[in-house]
Amino acid sequence: MKIIITQSEAVEKGIWPQVRTSFGLTKEDEVWEQEQFILTEEQAREWGLIR
């Protein structure tokens, strides 16, 4: 299963630093609020998005 999350949702849920690191983004990279990221089921579980 794949989980899709936007940048704004990741910020809201407090996992943006993990998402940013996982996708190799730095603080200087421009990211749109509605930009989507596809997470694996394992990542989503690890970050508390699903049980």
Automatic annotation (TrEMBL):
Domain of life: Bacteria
Protein name: Uncharacterized protein
Upper taxonomic lineage: Bacteria, Bacillati, Bacillota, Bacilli, Bacillales
